[in-house]
Amino acid sequence: MDRHAWDDRYRDREWLWTVDANRFVVQETAGLSPGRALDLAAGEGRNAIWLAKQGWDVTAVDFSTVALERAESFATHEGVSITTVAADLREYVPEMGGFDLVVLAYLHLPPDLFGTVLERATSALAPGGVIVIVGHDLTNIEHGYGGPQSSEVLYTPESLAADLGDLEVVKAEKVERPYESEEGTFTAIDALVVARRA
Fold it and tell me: What mean pLDDT comes out for the span 38-62?
C-alpha cells in the first residue's frame, strides 16, 4: 500500500488507530530517562505524543502527511511538541548515533526492505540507547486476530533478535493483547523485542 492509499485510509476515519499509546511501548519505556526519541512509522502519533508527555524530544517519521498533520494537531491539543518528518522508511536514513530511544511499532514490510529499515534504526542508537520493536507475530495468523495475513511480512521475536547485530537483547518474547472489534474482543499475538547499544 503506497502513501496515497494510506492518506485516504487515514482520511476515512476520525482516528484510524486508538489515541492511546501502545501498551508495550509504554511498558518498556516508562522507566527510561528521557532524551532524544525516534518513532518510525509513527502514524497518527500516539506513541510519539505519549513519549513527549514523558519529557522526550521526539521525532516522528511516517510517509502519510495526513497522519502526521493529525499527529501535530493532537500534540498541540495535548500541550506537547513533536518534530514530524514525512518520509518513506524504505528511503529514510536517520541521524547515526543520534537517538537514545528508537520505537518501531507495527511496521510490516517484506524481509529485505524491513531488514534495511531495521539496520538504519539500530544505527541511529546512541551509546546506551534502547530500541523497542513490536509487531504482529507470525503465529497471529492461525492463533490470534487481526493484522496482516501474509506470513512474508510477519516476524517472530527470535528472527528480530537475530537481526540486531551487536546490540544487547534485553527481551524477545511473544506477547498477547486484547483486540476490540465490532464482533467482540479477541486476542492478538505480537512479537516484542527490546535491545540496547552498549
Answer: 97
